[in-house]
């Protein structure tokens, strides 16, 4: 028997039956899903027989079942895949309005858990066996397509969970798919527009002399091993500091890199190291990649080329790559980058929450 005080002096008897009845009146639904990506960062969605929009793998939590077990059970039933899900990405409070629930459903609200299903290899993807009669198709799609393919609430939740995974700050608490404490990735709307797609082979050797340089971008290291990434303020699209050569650069890509870095990010760097270039056999230009140490970061400037002020963030190189769609060559570029990091005597960054750097952080 439980007693709860109604005043400082007079307790009232609150029986287990009364307590249970009160909690039953306030009961809500519970659901669980899994967010799975391929090596290109595309999200697995299902086309199901009972909806006209795509969904993440998942479903209702059964009686006396934990959300983690429910998500694992749904993966087994829907995709024929057995795996444990032990890392949460988001917990979402879904209201009737947020779910656009029909009155006949008598929707009481739902607590929906999103678990991290990981990044699947080609072998794992090939092992998928969709459940006949329910799962009509399984596909991996660019994150920016989720609002087009999913219901609004499901798309909001999936994108928030994906940003939480990249951000590495722990599970996000959501209300109707939106975080109650937005990170810089949420505020910028990262992944709501298509990521920069550069599916070009990466070469560590010098760029061909007969190809003009179209682009000089830099991986700029902070002392803790994270790198500077720029986010478009209007779209949340990510880019590395750097840009296109201009006449005043006199054909020197290092002058291009330093000028663009200063104009876009108010950043000064040490002596850059060339790490490689991107170009395909049918390309008429090359794209150069450098690594350098940040030596100064001033107040965020207005970029003279665009008239906008970029959002500057610090992320590990691995987190930064999740903001781009660079295909298989991304792994080669990452390996070359870490070799350059070692030569620059910069430590390898541990995965940590993405932050905005303050001006003058790197004055050396």
Automatic annotation (TrEMBL):
InterPro entries: NUDIX_hydrolase-like_dom_sf (IPR015797), NUDIX_hydrolase_CS (IPR020084), NUDIX_hydrolase_dom (IPR000086). Residues 27-163 form the Nudix hydrolase domain. Its cofactor is Mg(2+). Transmembrane segments: none annotated. Gene3D superfamilies: Nucleoside Triphosphate Pyrophosphohydrolase. PROSITE patterns: NUDIX (PS51462), NUDIX_BOX (PS00893). Coiled coil: none annotated. Keywords: Hydrolase. One of its GO terms (molecular function) is hydrolase activity. It holds the Pfam family NUDIX. This is NUDIX hydrolase. It comes from Streptomyces lancefieldiae. The lineage of its organism: Bacteria, Bacillati, Actinomycetota, Actinomycetes, Kitasatosporales.
């Amino acid at each position: 028997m439980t007693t709860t005080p109604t005043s400082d002096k007079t307790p009232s008897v609150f029986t287990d039956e009364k307590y249970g009845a009160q909690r039953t009146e306030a009961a809500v639904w519970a659901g669980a899903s899994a967010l799975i990506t391929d090596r290109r960062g595309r999200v697995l969605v299902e086309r199901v027989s009972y909806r006209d929009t795509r969904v993440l793998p998942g479903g209702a939590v059964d009686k006396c079942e934990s959300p983690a077990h429910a998500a694992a059970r749904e993966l087994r039933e829907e995709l024929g895949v057995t795996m444990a899900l032990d890392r949460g990405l988001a917990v979402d409070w879904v209201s009737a309005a947020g779910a656009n629930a029909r009155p006949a459903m008598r929707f009481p609200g739902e607590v929906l858990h999103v678990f991290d299903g990981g990044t699947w290899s080609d072998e794992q993807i090939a092992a998928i066996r969709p459940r006949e009669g329910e799962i009509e198709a399984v596909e991996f799609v660019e994150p920016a397509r989720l609002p087009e393919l999913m219901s609004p609430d499901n798309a909001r939740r999936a994108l928030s969970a994906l940003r939480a995974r990249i951000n590495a700050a722990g599970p996000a608490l959501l209300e109707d798919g939106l975080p109650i404490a937005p990170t810089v990735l949420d505020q910028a709307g990262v992944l709501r527009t298509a990521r920069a797609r550069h599916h070009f082979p990466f070469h560590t050797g010098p760029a061909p002399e007969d190809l003009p340089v179209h682009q000089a971008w830099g991986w700029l290291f902070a002392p803790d091993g994270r790198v500077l990434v720029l986010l478009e303020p209007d779209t949340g699209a990510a880019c590395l500091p750097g840009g296109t050569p201009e006449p005043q650069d006199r054909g020197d890509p290092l002058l291009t890199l330093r000028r663009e870095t200063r104009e876009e990010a108010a950043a000064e760097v040490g002596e850059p190291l060339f790490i490689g270039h991107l170009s395909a056999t049918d390309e008429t230009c090359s794209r150069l990649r450098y690594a350098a140490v940040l030596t100064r970061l001033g107040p965020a400037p207005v970029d003279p080329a665009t008239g906008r002020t970029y959002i500057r963030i610090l992320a590990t190189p691995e987190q930064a790559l999740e903001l781009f769609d660079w295909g298989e060559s991304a792994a080669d570029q990452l390996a070359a980058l870490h070799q350059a990091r070692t030569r620059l005597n910069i430590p390898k960054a541990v995965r940590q929450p993405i932050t905005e750097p303050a001006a003058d952080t790197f004055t050396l």
